[in-house]
Design a protein that fits this description.
single chain, F1FO ATP Synthase, 110 residues, mainly alpha
Length: 110
């Protein structure tokens, strides 16, 4: 139930973000694109960021839970588990940041 609630919250946040971007895109036509194309780019950017954020948060939570479960089962291996966990979390977060960069590139071309 909690996962569904977080998923719904992420979709709602992404929708609000995409509508804000659509409102900003409607103000000018700097790139010479039709307004409909700009609108769909903005909506896609909002939904893409929402999906990436929710996916990154879920995968980071599962990774941390698995690492802590392994540490709880074998406390002497904690030193060997922390470094790969941190590297894995950084790689997951980098995917979300790459998505943000792509979304910003798309939106700034509007």
């Amino acid at each position: 139930m909690l996962k569904k609630l977080w998923l719904m919250a992420g979709v709602i946040f992404g929708s609000v973000f995409s509508f804000a971007v659509v409102a900003m895109a409607a103000e000018g036509n700097a790139a010479g694109l039709p307004t409909e194309v700009k609108m769909w780019i903005a909506i896609a950017a909002g939904f893409g960021m929402a999906i990436a954020t929710v996916g990154g948060a879920i995968s980071q939570g599962r990774g941390i839970a698995s690492a802590l479960d392994g540490i709880a089962r074998n406390p002497s291996a904690a030193g060997q588990m922390v470094t790969p966990m941190i590297i894995g979390l950084a790689l997951i977060e980098s995917l979300v940041i790459y998505t943000l960069v792509v979304e910003l590139l798309l939106v700034l071309k509007l």
